Amino acid sequence: MTTQDQRFAIEGYRTQGGVTLDLQLAYQVHGELNDARDNLVVLPTYYSGRSSDNAYWIGSDQALDPAKYCIVIPNLFCNGASSSPSNTPPPFAASAFPHMTYLDNVSCQWRMVQAVFEVETVHAVIGFSMGAMQAYQWAAHLPDVVQRFVAVCGSARTSEHNKLFLDAVCGALRADAAWNGGDYDEPPTRGLEAFSVSYAAWFASQQFYSEHMYRAVGAPDVATFLAGAKMGFMSHDANDLLGMAATWRAGDLGASPQYDGDFEKAMGAIKARGLIMPCDTDLYFRVRHNEREVALLADAELAPIRSDFGHLAGGGMDPEALAFMTTKVRALLAS
Amino acid sequence: MTTQDQRFAIEGYRTQGGVTLDLQLAYQVHGELNDARDNLVVLPTYYSGRSSDNAYWIGSDQALDPAKYCIVIPNLFCNGASSSPSNTPPPFAASAFPHMTYLDNVSCQWRMVQAVFEVETVHAVIGFSMGAMQAYQWAAHLPDVVQRFVAVCGSARTSEHNKLFLDAVCGALRADAAWNGGDYDEPPTRGLEAFSVSYAAWFASQQFYSEHMYRAVGAPDVATFLAGAKMGFMSHDANDLLGMAATWRAGDLGASPQYDGDFEKAMGAIKARGLIMPCDTDLYFRVRHNEREVALLADAELAPIRSDFGHLAGGGMDPEALAFMTTKVRALLAS
Question: Is the CB of A172 less than 8 angstroms away from the CB of B175?
């Protein structure tokens, strides 16, 4: 997708953690708003993803036809496109960049959507991984705005194991003394490499590696596949990677002023029709976890994806999984 | 168990990799050899385990009654008790300690068993994790000696994903510049901590953490549980941890001169009756992997353990899993 990101400025934003700063939200638009202003779909980015990485959702044969929907892709804070440790001037540069929550992201995205599109409702919010967690956050934060949401390989609250996974991969980065608490001139390369390998062991299933399924995506051997993964992660700044991980780690629909720590209340407040699609071999977002969440939702379908790609299945890497997602999402959007 | 380790010296051992050095094999004995000399059970140690950590197998109510069996527990090379980077004098100290394979371990264990016990057969070789892989190696290396073997949460060959898991946890250690290629005066503490957290995310199942099952083993919260895991790993020298991981990573029954790279031939050569017990939530030794291995064995039973403890289930942490293991192993030993 060749569309360039556009930028929306938010001056004097006060984060959930109480820091006030100027922010830039980078976003991409595909398709056009219709006259009824009721065809807007928000498609937030995933961990380490950029707006263009969401291309697999969009197309006349994909889940989201830009001839039918106006699709806006907001970039996560800390992804290097929206405001991030790496691109923010002092006094909020690098390690001084504040912690951003999902609520911070969604609040700013909603401001942008209102200002740019002047809509009162959103047809759907759809996302994969951290994108799924933003979709959940939209639905809980704006129950009267969001009409449908899709959470692929994500959750409404970060599980204890998922936190440990994040601590493990981030710990590998921080083990490099060159990281220096986030105050570095040169990238902490050794730590970034350790981070990438550690992450890669989790983001696909065991059988993806053990049964050489990386060959199906064009890598002749595991070293080539891992080199690609390293290149992807290492195209990001270290503090940016840690910033996105901190957003993820703190994910909890209950943890907003609106719900005051009451997770069940937040889940119960969601009015949107939900489509929850875990992958059955995902190593950190588990079907069992989603099952319990769906039980708290008023109107949601659990539709697990059968794939041996693990978490990556939700990222469009498995054609069969993607076809299943396309069918399910189209049906939801038409409902 | 209060029994002290005994030591067996092997002078001028030539490793599979072609390095000649003097080695010490530390081992523990429980029970006595009977007059027929047919009640010897070998019980090798697991990754980061020491002989005393195998206590959960031994007792009148456990799988191995010392009133009935003579149980010998050899310590893995690199575990800090047998010859290891940390306890070997120059020129083989620290990073100069040679790579030890499972075949090296088993060859030395067999020399010790012959010298100390003067047996021609071994009633059974039993192990968990790297202990399971040694049991497999005994059965393939000495088909006419080993009569039964039990592999709990282990495999005959290290899977591609398992290798990546090892690269991930070891990479976290090596990301600490204080590790310095193995040439350090002070322990690379930051790397060892990152290693421990990364390992802990894998060695129990997702639900063990997310459903707070660590409470069942006496840890009130995840931080306390992780502190225990860190203490265990960090009681080992960094080079020792990497040395054991290298043994594990190279695990492959086919990779011995006897079988010349032919894994199927090695598996087909095993005469011992096998009992293969993966845990259904183990994140690195997978049931599916064992299923394929069992199909190559002449006489083996696959008996998966149902537990939410993940890999740790095979380490005796889950009482129900341990009871199941006890029943199955006793039946095999009596057959």
Answer: yes
